[in-house]
Design a protein that fits this description.
- This protein is mostly helical.
- The protein has one domain (2-110).
- It has helices at residues 2-48, 53-110.
- Helix 1 packs antiparallel against helix 2.
Amino acid sequence: EEFQAMRSTLRSIQKAGDKKAKALWKGARQAAHEVLKSGMRGAREQRRAGARESVYEQSMLDAEMQSERLAGEAEEAGEKAERLVEKQRDRVEIHLEAMMEDLHNQEVAQH
């Protein structure tokens, strides 16, 4: 019973960690998208201002590349955060199981 309560608490903590990691990942992806939108606005302004086609097209390409790079980094960071949450949960679970086994062995020895 106590073991189940501890395990339930552990699952709740993991879910909270997963939720936080996903929220951070989503925020980073949105930021990468904002970089793209901002870069495209800048390129449109260059075009309206009469810049050469090669100049504003390069600005567009730079914005796309920067956004893709940031999105990739966000994805890697999100995956790393999820792995860390899982790894920590596994460590705690192993420790919890060992504690519960010791407790069980003590109870058996007393009877």
